[in-house]
């Protein structure tokens, strides 16, 4: 029974390959496919490790959050040969805003600022928490952000949610001007990178919280120190006044004793001097002035006793 045409054709190819020595080449090519796949997987794994190492280095550095985000975007542009890349984060007013980017115009950035809704790819990624890969922008059924027209000549784009402690706070968008640029294996890479961005943001938030606490503590310490200095100054002044008070009391006591003696002699002298004596007037003046000084000294002693008591 003759073989069907397709089987005869395959038999002819097989016979030719075996007889001409091409069979070894055919077998080698067929066996080399797993090797090629393994090589590709190793390259991709090496790239993942390299990217994660660099991102970890950025996160652990003293750079500000903005510098870390810019460094990550630059790294992704370089490693994946992207035409555009952006990190969008949710603001306090609920607006999804581009915080770091490369390859985007200012006009596009302004158009892309909006609250996340399901009728855009960025909004869908943010609200659903799913990775989205679009490999043909001509076939999109909704806009990336605000307009169905895909700006910047982007033909392929991939979006991944950025999360912090289980809560979605933003979207990572990678773009290319080539169609079918992102393969399914890219899901794992962009997922890990988005998570690392979330870690960087959380660490930055913790640093900011610690910095704020340090500033508040420093302000409280400065305030308390100022209060203690003021109290110490008042205490020193009080001690000085107390010392002066004691000194003035001793002086007043001495003055009072002397004035008592002078006043006593002056009164006796006044009694002995005749009224017709020209010195009588001067002696009476001495008596009156001593009496006035004794009254002032007595008041000074009373005031000092009241303040120190």
Quick overview of this protein structure:
This protein is α+β, with helices and mostly antiparallel strands. The chain contains 7 helices and 5 strands.
Total E-strand runs = 5
User: What would the average pLDDT be, to the nearest integer?
Assistant: 79
Q: Which CATH C-level class of the largest domain is it?
A: Alpha Beta
Per the CATH scheme, the topology name of the largest domain is Beta-Lactamase
| Total number of helices | 7
- As a percent range, the share of strand residues is 5-15%
Strand order of the largest sheet: 2-1-5-4-3
Rough outline: rod-shaped
Helix content: 55-70%
Q: Uncertain regions: pLDDT < 50 for 5+ in a row?
A: 1-23
Instruction: Give Rg in angstroms.
Output: 48 Å
Distance between the termini: 137 Å
| Structural domains: how many | 2
Structural class by helix and strand composition: alpha+beta
The CATH superfamily label of the largest domain reads GAF domain
Largest sheet: 5 strands, antiparallel
CATH architecture tag of the largest domain: 2-Layer Sandwich
The H/E string reads HHHEEHHEEEHH
